[in-house]
Amino acid sequence: MAGVDAQRIERAVREILLAIGEDPERPGLERTPQRVAAAYAEFFGGLDVDPLTHLAETVPIGTTDAGGPTTSDAVVLRDLAFRSVCEHHLLPFVGTAHIAYLPGDRVVGFGRIPAVIDTLAARPQLQERLAEEIADTLVAGLDPRGVLVVLDAQHRCVTTRGPRQERSSSVTIVSRGALAEPAARAEIMALIGGRGA
């Protein structure tokens, strides 16, 4: 893919404005097609990016004094803001991601994981699939002993249309490897929810 076709989006938005009975030439709307095209270029920019590129530069954990590899019990990143667009209505959903992984023999800089989330979220998405794709990318890129992904998001298709459940949010949880084991997963979930150390 070569990115979004801005001119095609502009034509489509103009047609939508006409279809709802608006005048796309009136003051306030004359630049709306261009604004929407620019927004869509941002919202869907992840379609052209392989999220694994963000995990290409890893750092070995090292070795112990006895010569064996060191291990970290867990790496947890909490409260990572994200936004995506639901593929059912093309309305945004926004929320918070919590990511945990049990490193194998390497780790990655903390800023790389939000980059993975941003790339995968910048596509037409379902929250459930987004959580799966984040987990699978971390498994493929880091070969960890376990991964846990928790996404908590508000969907504008729920909060602003239909039943308009303005306070509702949706939580999805995906686990892989050792963190799929109930006790280990519960320990990390308590750490995320309880804000404890």
What would the keywords be for this entry?
197 residues, alpha+beta, five-stranded mixed β-sheet, two-stranded antiparallel sheet, 6 helices, 7 strands, 35% helix, elongated
How would you describe the overall organization of this protein?
The chain is an alpha+beta fold. It has six helices and seven strands; from the N terminus they run ααββββαβαβαβα. The strands form two sheets. The protein has a five-stranded mixed sheet, sandwiched between helices. Strands 1-4 form a two-stranded antiparallel ribbon. It is elongated and about 65 Å long. The N and C termini lie far apart (44 Å). The mean pLDDT is 92.
- Supply the helix-strand structural class: alpha+beta
The biggest beta sheet is recorded as: 5 strands, mixed
What percentage of amino acids are in beta strands? 15-25%
Mean pLDDT: 92
| Low-confidence runs | none
SSE ordering = HHEEEEHEHEHEH
* Relative helix content: 25-40%
Shape descriptor: elongated
Number of helices: 6
**Strand order in space, largest sheet:** 5-2-3-6-7
Spatial extent as radius of gyration: 20 Å
The strand count comes to: 7
In whole angstroms, how far apart are the ends? Answer: 44 Å
Summarize this entry quickly.
The chain has 197 residues and is of the alpha+beta class. The chain has six helices and seven strands.
Write the topology of this structure:
Layout: H1 6-19, H2 32-43, E1 58-60, E2 75-86, E3 92-102, E4 106-108, H3 112-121, E5 124-125, H4 127-142, E6 146-155, H5 156-159, E7 170-177, H6 182-194
Parallel strand pairs: 2-5
Antiparallel strand pairs: 1-4, 2-3, 3-6, 6-7
Helix pairs in contact: 1-2, 3-4
